[in-house]
Each structure stands twice: as C-alpha cells, then as structure tokens.
Amino acid sequence: MYLAIKHIHLTCIVLSLSLFLLRGYWALFSPSHLQRKWVKVVPHCIDTLLLISAITLAALLQQYPFIDHWLTAKVVALLAYIGFGTFAIKRGKTRSSKALFLVLALLCFGYIVVVAINHNPLPWT
C-alpha cells in the first residue's frame, strides 16, 4: 500500500507543479485563460489528492509535523508556497510582481523537494 500511495503522491506533485507553471505563464502573458472553468477546478482536485496522500504517507510512516523537524519545515514551506503562488496567479498587481512571486513560489517548491529527499530541514548543511 505504501508504494501505491507514494506513487500517487509523486504523480500529484508533478501534475500540481505543471499546472502551477502553466497558470503562472498565463497570469503573466494571457490572463484570460485563467477564467476557464477547468483551470479553476482541476488544480484544487489535484492538490486535495496530494494533501490526502501526504497525510496518508505520514500516518503510514509514523512521521508527523511538529515531531519530525523535516516535515515541519515542509509544512511551513508549503504555506509560503501557497501564499506566494496566490500572489503570482491572482493577487499580484503588476506583471513584475507576479513574476517575482512566481519565482519565490518555485524556490519554496524546490526547497520542499530537497527537504523531502534529504529528510533534513537544513539540506545545505
């Protein structure tokens, strides 16, 4: 069961990032595309499945945020990623601010991946 959940989780990560990049591109260069119904629904479905699979993996592995520091770091970085992503796609006022928030969100995403691989909240040490 663990491997199936892990594969679902990894697939959702790839899908979520791909759609985030597409929506980020559209936010910068073709905002009207963001008004399509599927663009408003599908990412939330994928992200919900991603969160459910993450919680399931944590329970299966008996590793939990606020107990295991690397998972705590991932949760905090995820919140930053969501915040920056919101400004990159919806709330940014100018193209340059949206681009800045897109880069910040992607840096958070990269940090999350490195922490997940190394199980270390300070992976550069």
Walk me through this protein's architecture:
- It contains 4 helices and no strands.
- It has 125 residues and is an all-alpha fold.
- The chain has one domain (2-118).
- Helix 1 (2-29) packs antiparallel against helix 4 and helix 3 (69-91) runs antiparallel to helix 4 (95-118).
- The longest helix has 28 residues, at 2-29.
- The model has no long low-confidence stretch (mean pLDDT 96).
Low-confidence stretches: none
**Average pLDDT score:** 96
Outline, from the CA principal axes?
Answer: globular
SS class: mainly alpha
Task: Bin the strand percentage.
Answer: under 5%
How many structural domains are formed by the residues? 1
Count of alpha and pi helical runs: 4
List the helices and strands in order: HHHH
- Tally the beta strands: 0
Question: Distance between the terminal alpha carbons, to the nearest Å?
Answer: 33 Å
Transmembrane segments: 6-29, 67-87, 99-117
Protein name: Putative membrane protein
Organism: Neptuniibacter caesariensis
Pfam family, one: SirB
